[in-house]
Structures are given as C-alpha cells and as structure tokens.
C-alpha cells in the first residue's frame, strides 16, 4: 500500500458539540453545555501552561548544554577551565541535561498527537492580507468573498502553508473581531450598515464573518429570539449581496459597497433584496426545526409506570432495583452467562423468586420453542 501524503489520524480526536449536549433529560441542557465547555477550556489552558513551562525549561537546559560543551572543549584543550572543572562530572551533567530535554520533547510530542480538536481550535489564519482596490485582479484572488492578494499556484502545494497555522483560523478570527460582528448584527438602519462596512469592511466581508453570522442566526432562532434573528438575517444578506456583486464585476468587495447601497434604493432591486432576505429567514427557521427534531430524537422517552408493566403486571424498573448488583450488571450487559453465574451464587428459592419477577416484568423472556431465554433491553442500562 502506498504511503498517504497526509496523516489523517489527528482527526480521530475531534470533540464535537453534540458530545457536550448529550445529557440526561432531567439536567438542563444549556447549563450542562456551559459546564462541559468550561471544563474543556480549562483543560486546554492547563495543557498550554504545562507546554509553555516545559519549553521554558528546555530553553534553559539548552543554554546549559551549550555552556557544558564549551567547557568540555576548553578542558580537553588544556585551557583555564581545566584547573577548576571535572571532565567526568561535565560529561555526566551533559547526558543528564540532554535526557531531560528529550523527555520534555517526547511529552510535548505526545500531547500534540493526542490533542483533542474542537470547534475552537480546528482552524487558524495562515496569512491575512487586505487590498483596498482589486481592480484588474484575477478571479483567483477572490477567496470566500475577500481578496487574499495571493495568486493561486496550480503546480504548488494545495492548502495552508503549515498545518499548525491552519487549525485555529476561525477561532482566532472570532476572538479578535467578535465585538465588531455583534455590533453589526444589531444594526437596525441600512445607512448604519453602510458606515460599518466602510469602517470594518475587511472584517465583515471575510468568509469567517459570514460563517459566524449564519451560526448566530440559527442560535437566535432556536433560543426564541425571532426578531433578533430576522435583523441579523437581513444584515447577513447585505454582506452576501455585496460579495455577489463584487464577484460579478470582478472587483474587490469593498469597491462595490457604495454601488450596492445605491442600487438598493431602486424599488426593483430592493424588492429582490427583500425576497432574498425572506428566503434566507425561511431556511434558518426550517433548519432550526430540523435541529430541534434531531435533538429531541436523541433524548430518551420516559414511559409511565402503566406503560412499563410487563406481562405479569410488574414494573421492570422496580424489579430491577430489587436485584443484586451482579444480576443488575448482567442485565445491563445483556450477558446470560454472567446472569447464570449470579443465580448459581444464590439459594435456589431466592434465585427462582428473582427470575419469576423478571419474567413477570418482561426483563426476562423465555423462548419455549428453542428452550432459550433472552435478556430484554428495557432501556435500564
């Protein structure tokens, strides 16, 4: 098998937001998500501090290593250091210093290879350059509605210049520009939107800005803020129309801000813009409904006691609580051999009593035709 050009194993450790949202129905989902997110952030901060400390120690040891090498050279050449330095002691210290450095480097490498990736650290800005005028520029310079100023290289390597520089782009962008993005989302007048585009066009017309705004619209709709979502949707469409107009004219998006706002004063163009806004709002509302259904489908349905009753009129939940720990573990794992071992450890009368109750509650189903029995998955695990 040929060797792959890229190692995909790093993506085995991705932490997705659904993991943080997976919670018991009796626990507030928002509170659980915030707690899990805070724990993840604290863990990453601890790892970062630990790596920084190890790198600082390695720097100090590297300086000491260079000093020892210099002293050894002087001792072996019969210099002044030969009078007060022990060559064997220096050699021993050199090995010790190099061993410490290697151990720290191995630990840092292990931490990097086993790092958990998530929405906050999956991207990073490799290069960022804004050109005020894109007149005469190639379409290849237009990336996500913004011009990077970097010509494409069809014969060169594809993707970011380095993997480390690529993984944190979105998170870094949001950390740096979140206040500008939130301020723009809350802008009610189109004239003020135009002013903000002149002030912060490089930020608002960036591809990451549109991703952030899209997620904000969905979040507002799901959290019960439809008016806020509709305003953000309109402002999102302003950015989309500006970038679309720029692409059609082969110009930089900032060059067509004024032409866009001039066009939108035309009733015909304004009508098309409003229609696009309503279409975008409808898509956000539909996605919010679908997302709620997905979340609801993941939540276990709690049955009433009457609905849980087995063929003998007993509640499997109540019967399960009366079983020994070994029997409970066998039912949770649906392991009949483990259940048999647990029963053999009991008195025959006690074992029969428990098994009769299990059959009456539906935890245990006897298959008379094959003389086999089945441990029923009744949602107790």
UniProtKB/TrEMBL annotation:
Tell me the Pfam families matching this sequence.
CDC37_C (PF08564), CDC37_M (PF08565), CDC37_N (PF03234)
Instruction: List the Gene3D superfamilies hit by this protein, alphabetically.
Output: 6.10.140.250, Cdc37, Hsp90 binding domain
GO terms (BP aspect):
protein folding; protein stabilization
Q: Which GO terms describe its cellular component?
A: cytoplasm
Q: GO: which molecular function terms?
A: heat shock protein binding; protein kinase binding; protein-folding chaperone binding; unfolded protein binding
- Residue ranges of domain Cdc37 C-terminal in the record: 308-378
Region spans: Disordered: 42-64
What is the superkingdom listed in this entry's lineage? Eukaryota
Q: InterPro entries annotated for this entry?
A: Cdc37, Cdc37_C, Cdc37_Hsp90-bd, Cdc37_Hsp90-bd_sf, Cdc37_N_dom
Q: Where is the Cdc37 Hsp90 binding domain?
A: 153-302
Report the locations given in the UniProt record: Cytoplasm
Its main subcellular localisation, reduced to a broad class, is cytoplasm
- UniProt domain Cdc37 N-terminal: residue ranges: 5-130
Q: Which keywords label this protein?
A: Chaperone, Cytoplasm
Report which residue ranges the record marks as coiled coil. Answer: none
Family under the similarity heading: Belongs to the CDC37 family.
Q: What is this protein called?
A: Hsp90 chaperone protein kinase-targeting subunit
Question: Which species expresses this protein natively?
Answer: Pelagomonas calceolata
User: What lineage, starting at the top, does this entry show?
Assistant: Eukaryota, Sar, Stramenopiles, Ochrophyta, Pelagophyceae
């Amino acid at each position: 098998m040929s060797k792959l050009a890229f190692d995909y194993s790093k993506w085995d450790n991705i932490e997705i937001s659904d993991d943080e949202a997976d919670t018991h129905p009796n626990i507030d989902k928002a509170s659980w998500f915030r707690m899990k997110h805070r724990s993840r952030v604290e863990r990453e901060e601890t790892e970062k501090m630990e790596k920084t400390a190890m790198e600082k120690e390695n720097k100090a040891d590297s300086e000491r290593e260079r000093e020892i090498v210099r002293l050894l050279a002087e001792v072996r050449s019969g210099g002044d250091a030969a009078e007060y330095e022990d060559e064997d002691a220096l050699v021993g210290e050199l090995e010790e210093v190099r061993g410490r450095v290697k151990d720290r480097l191995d630990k840092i490498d292990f931490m990097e290879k086993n790092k958990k990736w998530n929405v906050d650290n999956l991207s990073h800005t490799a290069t960022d350059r804004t050109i005020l005028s894109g007149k005469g520029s190639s379409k290849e310079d237009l990336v996500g509605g913004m011009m990077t100023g970097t010509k494409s290289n069809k014969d060169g390597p594809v993707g970011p210049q380095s993997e480390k520089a690529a993984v944190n782009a979105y998170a870094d962008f949001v950390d740096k520009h979140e206040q500008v993005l939130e301020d723009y989302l809350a802008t009610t007048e189109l004239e003020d939107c135009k002013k903000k585009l002149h002030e912060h066009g490089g930020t608002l017309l960036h591809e990451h800005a549109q991703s952030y705004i899209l997620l904000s619209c969905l979040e507002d709709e799901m959290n019960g803020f439809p008016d806020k979502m509709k305003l953000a949707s309109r402002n999102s469409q302003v950015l989309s129309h500006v970038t679309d107009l720029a692409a059609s004219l082969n110009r930089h998006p900032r060059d067509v801000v004024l032409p866009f706002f001039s066009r939108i004063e035309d009733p015909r163009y304004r009508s098309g813009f409003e229609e696009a806004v309503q279409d975008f709002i409808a898509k956000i509302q539909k996605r919010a409904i679908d997302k709620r259904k997905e979340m609801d489908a993941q939540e276990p349905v709690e049955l009433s006691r009457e609905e849980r009753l087995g063929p003998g009129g007993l509640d499997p939940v109540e019967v399960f609580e009366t079983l020994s720990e070994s029997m409970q573990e066998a039912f949770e794992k649906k392991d009949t051999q483990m259940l048999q071992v647990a029963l053999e450890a009991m008195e025959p009368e006690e074992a029969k009593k428990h098994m009769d109750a299990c059959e009456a509650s539906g935890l245990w189903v006897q298959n008379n035709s094959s003389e086999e029995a089945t441990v029923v998955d009744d949602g107790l695990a």
